[in-house]
Design a protein that fits this description.
By secondary structure, this protein is of the alpha/beta class. The protein has 2 domains: about 1-130, Four Helix Bundle (Hemerythrin (Met), subunit A) (Up-down Bundle); about 140-365, Rossmann fold (3-Layer(aba) Sandwich). The chain has 12 helices and 18 strands. The strands form 5 sheets. A 7-stranded mixed β-sheet has the order 8-7-6-9-12-17-18, with helices on both faces. A 4-stranded mixed β-sheet has the order 13-10-11-16, covered by helices on one side. It has a 3-stranded antiparallel β-sheet with strand order 3-4-5. A hairpin with a 4-residue loop joins strand 10 and strand 11 (about 255). The longest helix is centred in the middle third of the chain and has 41 residues, at about 115-155. It starts with a strand and ends in a 5-residue tail after the last helix. Its EC number is 5.3.1.23. Pathway: Amino-acid biosynthesis; L-methionine biosynthesis via salvage pathway; L-methionine from S-methyl-5-thio-alpha-D-ribose 1-phosphate: step 1/6. Keywords: Amino-acid biosynthesis, Isomerase, Methionine biosynthesis.
Length: about 375
């Protein structure tokens, strides 16, 4: 990703000291670009829990570096197990977190404590490199879907993509999942336009996806969450592409709250609904997503309050809900496989089914 012409990943080891970890404070975007320095596992856990860093693949990568930071302080097996357990409790829905921590534990557990620090940094870096290549390939396999629409509509007609939440480079180490095909289509010269759901309650679409698209120069329009069905009814959406925090072996998809409603509208209007899936998001242990995927319940304040820039330039948080009214805040919902046109993975595209996933990932079966 590039911000003002400078290339960044979403997590990296500090280039000066060679051991601390840097991330963007995503709670400050798009109003300010602030970079945080993480020096221990507790700070990594706090960043994940408070969504200073977020996105299913990225929190796995940051947690992996959290383990590396922990090994600097205490490389004992007991401490390794405690840190993996502590980081694993920060957010329950995204399976990438557990996947990365299990990979870190497996890489370190049989090593001597003297060897664990270097090995932990190497394994965390490998997780990041794997995510970058995975997301690049997701873009390559999703790009033909946009090319086909462009060819059908003709060069003077734009390809309209609707997306929900943020599944770009801020949610991964680089490239993104759902946005990777869009970035590649834009770079290829396709006339692509993105409808960006605001994605209440945290507005990751309006704040983060729009920020990414602005920085990359991709034409887009931010819309209220409830506008998607209307746009589909009037032929203004050619395809929906969303990311995911967990996909079960039968193809059920957990993603940001509101995704299920978009999938229902897409089904009713004959709009293809595709989900971009990195291998780290696949949970073959779970079958029925509605019954088995834990749904994170977040703080009421995310619903009752909004943060934005006031007319005088100050960043302010205001309450938008009537005083005395309680709020519920489920962070994710599950879209059943029957509503998903297909999955875009780093290994290719497939139907949302157990047979399709087993064919692409036989080693996970």
């Amino acid at each position: 990703m590039k911000i003002d012409g400078i290339h960044y990943r979403s997590v990296w080891v500090d280039r000066d000291d060679g051991w601390s970890v840097r991330i963007f404070d995503q709670t400050k975007l798009p109003w300010a670009i602030e970079i945080l320095r993480l020096t221990d596992a507790d700070q990594a856990a706090h960043a994940i829990r408070t969504m200073q860093t977020r996105g299913a693949p990225l929190i796995g990568a940051v947690a992996a570096y959290g383990v590396a930071l922990a090994m600097r302080a205490d490389a004992s097996t007991a401490h390794l197990d405690r840190v993996v357990e502590m980081l694993g409790k920060t957010r329950p829905t995204a399976i990438n977190l557990r996947w990365a921590l299990e990979r870190m534990r497996a890489a370190l557990h049989n090593l001597s404590p003297a060897d664990r620090v270097a090995a932990a940094y190497a394994e965390a870096a490998a997780i990041c490199d794997d995510d970058v290549e995975t997301c690049r390939r997701i873009g390559e396999h999703g790009l033909p879907l946009l090319r086909e629409i462009a060819a059908r509509k003709g060069p003077d007609q734009r390809v309209n993509v609707l997306t929900h939440c943020n599944a770009g480079w801020l949610a991964t180490v680089d490239y993104g999942t759902a946005l990777s095909p869009i970035f590649q289509a834009h770079d290829e010269g396709l006339n692509v336009h993105v409808w960006v759901d605001e994605t209440r309650p945290r507005n990751q679409g309006a704040a983060l996806t729009a920020f990414e698209l602005v920085k990359h120069g991709v034409p887009h329009t931010v819309v209220a969450d409830n506008a998607g069905g209307h746009l589909m009814q009037h032929g203004e959406v050619d395809i929906c592409i969303v990311g995911t925090d967990r996909v079960t072996r039968q193809g059920d998809v957990a993603n940001k709250i509101g995704t299920y409603l978009k999938a229902l509208a897409a089904k009713d209007n004959g709009v293809p609904f595709w989900v971009a899936l990195p291998h780290s998001t696949l949970d073959m242990r779970a079958r029925d997503g509605v019954a088995e995927i834990p749904i994170e319940e977040r703080a009421e304040a995310e619903v009752t309050d909004l943060t934005g820039r006031a007319a005088d330039g100050r960043i302010e948080t205001i309450r938008v809900v009537a005083e005395g009214s309680p709020a519920a805040n489920p962070a994710f919902d599950v879209t059943p496989a029957r509503l998903v046109t297909g999955l875009i993975t780093e290994r290719g595209r497939t139907e949302a089914s157990e047979a399709g996933l087993r064919a692409l990932y036989p080693e996970k079966a």
